[in-house]
Amino acid sequence: MDQQTTLKKRVSLSGVGVHSGKPVTVHFNPATAGEGIVFKRVDSGAEGRLIRAHASQVAKTDLCTVIGNNDGDQVMTIEHLMSAVSGLGIDNLLIEIDNSEVPILDGSSIMFLDAFVEAGIETLPASRRFIRILKPVRVEAGEAWAELVPYNGTRFEVEIDFATPAIGRQKIGLDLSARIYSREISHARTFGFIKDVEWLWAAGLALGSSLENSVVIGEDDRVVNAAGLRYPDEFVRHKTLDAIGDLAVIGGPIIGCFRSYRSGHRLNGTVVKEVLADPSAFEIVEARRAGTGYEDITRAE
What we know:
Layout: E1 3-7, E2 11-16, E3 23-30, E4 37-41, E5 49-52, E6 58-60, E7 66-68, E8 74-75, H1 79-88, E9 93-97, H2 110-119, E10 121-127, E11 129-133, E12 137-141, E13 144-149, E14 154-161, E15 169-175, H3 178-185, E16 191-193, H4 197-202, E17 215-217, H5 234-247, E18 254-261, H6 265-276, E19 282-287, E20 297-299
Parallel strand pairs: 4-9, 11-18, 14-18, 16-17
Antiparallel strand pairs: 1-10, 2-3, 3-9, 4-5, 6-7, 7-8, 11-19, 12-13, 13-18, 14-15, 19-20
Helix pairs in contact: 1-2, 1-5, 5-6
């Protein structure tokens, strides 16, 4: 899609935050071209304050992605929502939220995606701007790594490796489109281990987690959820879902390939910041006319 997009009408969702356990409602509003994805806190004490979903506003990446403004307002756990935004190719939204954490819903991004489809996607009279990767940028932490490399399209290659036999080593590679995202990624749920519950609770985290919104692996290294998995390799698909959301704060759709091994929110966020910190690693390009694809693009001013 060569033109910017937004929603045709307002749509809302309610749930609880996976870490805070607190109820929250989000309203997704159409926005004009060039506004980007902006959160607006509408709860008491932070009412009317804006937080842009951009790498420059990322405050934390421990267990989830958190954005914040200079007033100290934050919105936690934006990755599933941003993943759906990116997967459907939505460029501009005003997101009103009445608490500090995006609702976890069912632990995947499908409910966000369904809400956006219900609202309808509006094409705007403005060209879309892309972030084209010009050279490899890689970050590492022990055995884990993540990188962005040049590629004529938008591709994700994600590999995970867990000691538990319930997960093991899984790998996926796909060229991203709205159709592929909807079918292959959007249903994949977040996951965790029962053995980690006590320390998470002690840290004030995972207070809203349950079998209704997470795939849980028990002490016997088996999936606890009665209905089992949605995909045989749901774990790596969810890690891909997370990566799509984490990279969505780079400033526009990526023309390039993201690759990772045992990565998470922190490394995903770090590679985005490393790219943006190096002007020779990327360029901003603008689509010229509908239907021409990535080859017919010109460098934006």
